[in-house]
């Protein structure tokens, strides 16, 4: 049974931001686990269906994916700058981080258009898994860019740290995804 001391500790943690921090890290680790499972499935499928993997990779565009890698790394750098700055100077880096994220979305849209027109669907389940993984990541980029803009509009130290942490997790997923999907 919870005591008054337990309640006081919980209130203190909530006021200090520790409770938010725990939820943030649960979210980050659950996202990493979900993407990890999808990437393991992708690697297994490429071993099971080597011919389909070769077909899929012949229709992918590693140059565009490399450009997206540069965009996300630069975006993550801007998010990190926002964390290091005082509350009055976070808007610029957060907006720039979001704009670089949206540039990623634009490049990915071009890449998807080229891939779909080239007949990438011939890779069967492997192409479905490719679109699932990259599309799921793309949704995270769109959502994260929106939150970056929202936090830039009304910044608080805790929110800047939280969105920067989530943004770095999204970057990390891409940095692992890029070589597995495009370079192997």
Total of DSSP H or I helical runs spanning 4+ residues: 7
The total strand number stands at 0
Structure classification: mainly alpha
Radius of gyration: 19 Å
Report how far the terminal alpha carbons are from each other.
54 Å
How would you spell out the order of helices and strands?
HHHHHHH
The percentage helix is over 70%
Q: Given the C-alpha coordinates, what overall shape results?
A: elongated
Overall description:
There is one protein chain. The chain has helices at 4-16, 18-48, 50-59, 62-84, 91-117, 125-153, 157-183. Helix 2 packs parallel to helix 7, helix 4 (62-84) runs antiparallel to helix 5 (91-117) and helix 4 (62-84) packs antiparallel against helix 7 (157-183). The chain is mainly alpha-helical. The protein contains seven helices and no strands.
Any key phrases for this structure?
184 residues, mainly alpha, elongated
Concise structural overview:
The chain has helices spanning 4-16, 18-48, 50-59, 62-84, 91-117, 125-153, 157-183. With 184 residues, it is an all-alpha fold. The longest helix is centred in the first third of the chain and has 31 residues, at 18-48.
Give the topology, please:
Elements: H1 4-16, H2 18-48, H3 50-59, H4 62-84, H5 91-117, H6 125-153, H7 157-183
